[in-house]
Request: fold
Amino acid sequence: MNDAVAVELKGVVKRYNEILAVNQLDLSINTGEIFGLLGPNGSGKSTTLKMLLGLVTPDVGSISVLGKDVQKDPVAVKQQVGYVPESPRLYEFLTGIEYLDFIGDIYGMQTEEKKNRITEYLKALQLEGREGDMINGYSEGMKQKIALISAFLHRPKLLILDEPLSALDPRSARIVKDFLHQLKTQGVTTIMSTHVLEIAQAVCDRIGIMYQGRILALGNMKELRQMSKLPDSGLEDIFLKLTGTDDIRAVVEELLK
Amino acid sequence: MNWKNVLRLIRVERKSGRLIRGRKLTKYRESGFLAYWPYWAGLALGIVTGLLAGMIYNVASAADPSISKPFQDGALSVFLSLPTLVLVYSLVFTTMQQIQRSGVKTSSQVPYWLPVTWQEHTLASILASLLGFPLASVVFITSAITILSVFIGQFLPAVMASLAVFAAAFMASAITEVLRILQVRFIGAVYKSSGRAAVWVRFIGSLLFFLVFYIIYFYMTSGGAVTFIQTIASAQTAAWFIPFVWLGMTLYSFTSGLLLQGFIFLALSILFIAGLFFLATLLNRRFGLYEPPAITISRGVYAPRTGFLGKFGFSTAEASLIRKDLRAFTRRRELMTIFIIPIVIILVQVMQTLGSTTANVPAQFFVYFAASAFLLPASVMAMSLGSFMIGEEGQAVWRIYASPLSAKTLVKSKYFFIIFFSIVVLAITGIFGFVVYHPSLRATVVSYCEAVFLIFALGAISLSNGIKGADFTETPRARMIHLSWSMINVGVCLLAGVAILAPFFPYAISSMLSEIMPGLTGVALLDPLLAVVVSAIIAIILTAIFYRIALKNARELLTKAEM
Reply:
């Protein structure tokens, strides 16, 4: 794998008993790319993201992240990755600042650098003044901000974000989006999973649509439009057509009966 | 009041018990009959108990007719004290129920978006707190006394006592409901006004609460219960002005033929219960949706510190994990209770010591009390901490999985924490043992050494088991370790404890024999210092083995990453 490729999955299969979560997945994500991984519930997105961190072991296939084999050296991979899970559970008995301090220490950050970055992020995401409160008193949005800061704090080379903008207020969401773009120019790769297709369309360079454990379509917006034969449509229509879930009208009419 | 709504709400509360018991909902099939098994069991047991007691009475009174009268008087006295007795224990058990339910957010959360009035919600909450053991025991008591009363000719007092018992249980649950709301609202206010000291207010407050709770619980479940019933029966009439005994006073008045007085106490009892219910409703309406404020711990400029752990060779990651765990054990209620263990052990010991003094037990037995003051609290602490240290991460364990932490880092930091706190406990309880029992200097040194060996070995064993059996389930409460692994841990720790202390057994046995049989002077006392060396070797071997197992288990845990 060359330096231009940040993440590479080859023939990856993951099965949970009878359920085939990921089916012969081949995927390459380039360095400095913002990649959107979309798909209906149960399509295998979260399993794929977890496999990238070594949290789930593939039954078959190989995964390389930032030039390292995830299975052989997961700690080294995690050192360079920032991760936000779909429902981040934080240590609710810590204050926001204690949590971030803890994260900084876990990643071995220098004291001064850690202090500066935490202060900057808290200010940027408008958590100043609340950092001394225990996390169990935070709103969902505030918890999400803390989870995001903890992913960005050590300046990872790869960001894996599962629904990163959920529960965020518009200003914070915009800051995060712009920040991801800035990180991209610095060579940081981002893999993002989201159900908010407008966000994926606005933020991602390339999008992979997963369905039943496979990549159904892969490319930038222009390529996806060509694949779906919907030249003037947005990502929502493309997604619904490709995943075969475009029977919305019929469903709504059924509900109205 | 829409009674159907009340029933629906109670049904929801009853089903929340599935979460309390941590059942796998995907496989949950509820049988209408089995869902109510505790009450059927209570009824069946009550009937059998009543029948047995009645038959014993029949046989005994046939053999000796003179016992009939005292038996009937005694039974009546018990009937009269039952409402107050049920009130007291229902208070304890409904409080336990509330503590359990508080973890089930979905069930305890007020469904304010539904068309349910506060009266309906409050009534349902009060009745739901009685579900389970409190109600089953009331069913047992009432069925038992009703059946017994047929044999002893006290049917009417038994029926009245049964009604009063149900009313007492309701009264207790209403009191618990009032206290619950006040606790949420006003403890929150205390935290807020305490500022940075709030964590310590909560820590000490929780310790005190559980301590008082445990003392009451032990008192009621030990021999003290009989004394308690006798006290209630004799003191009830003297304390007639206290509303909590009005139900008992109603019974007393009616059975004594004081009808007017009986009706007055009955009316007062009904008014008091209604008053409690309206107070609970009022408080729920006012504070039912109250969210306790966040505890502010730090204000001002953020200043990270390296801390002293770094100077002792801990990496930043290890020191950070240790600091985080320290905060967890001083801020999370379910973890704070671990500090109760040594206090309760010492309390139980004090009670035993007092009892032993009065019973003229040989003074040499105090050596064993002293030894257990050194060995027991710290060992139990190491065992409990070890088994919880990984599971306490809960759902937030994803941070451990996603962080670049090696198994070595994880085990080292967790193990240090176990050893550090157990040594602190040993220092405190050791001083207690020394001051109270005055052991010789040699015995003190030996006891301290043995306790340290136990801490190191049991800490490693429990940590290895705690990693293997870690349970990260948090709803409705943090489970921390699977039950099966908890039992395995206790078994292995017991065996290890016996192995480490085994070199002292000849010493203890010969010492005991010489006390019991003074003629056996030929039994040589072994030098305990020699036993310490052997004991140390055993402890070191066990510690090394189980530390390695803990490392292996940690590697597996980090690879499997099951959440």
Summary: Chain B has two domains: 38-194+229-287, 312-560. Chain B touches chain A through 40 residues (CB under 8 Å). The radius of gyration of chain B is 28 Å.
